[in-house]
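At your convenience, could you comment on the folded chain following this short note?
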Amino acid sequence: MAGMGRISLSTPWLLTGLILYVILVVIAAAGYTPTLRRQIQALEAGGPNSPEYQQLSGRGTRIGITLTVIGVIIVFTMVTKPALWS
């Protein structure tokens, strides 16, 4: 859209969406993926009732909620195109 249209990448709502997307990818790669790997290992080693699995499950849920909120904010920003700053 920015490459074909007349919208600059420095447009506030587009730049905000892109920055939030980068943040989302970094959190997913650095936080959620390793947690999920460890959670699978804990499940295989100790089952679903093991303390390690339960702790990792809670962490995965918190990170997942954070990623979902960021994703919703990105969609909201892309749909409404708010005037974020002048």
In short: The chain has a mean pLDDT of 92. Helices lie at 12-46, 51-80. The two ends are 22 Å apart (CA to CA).
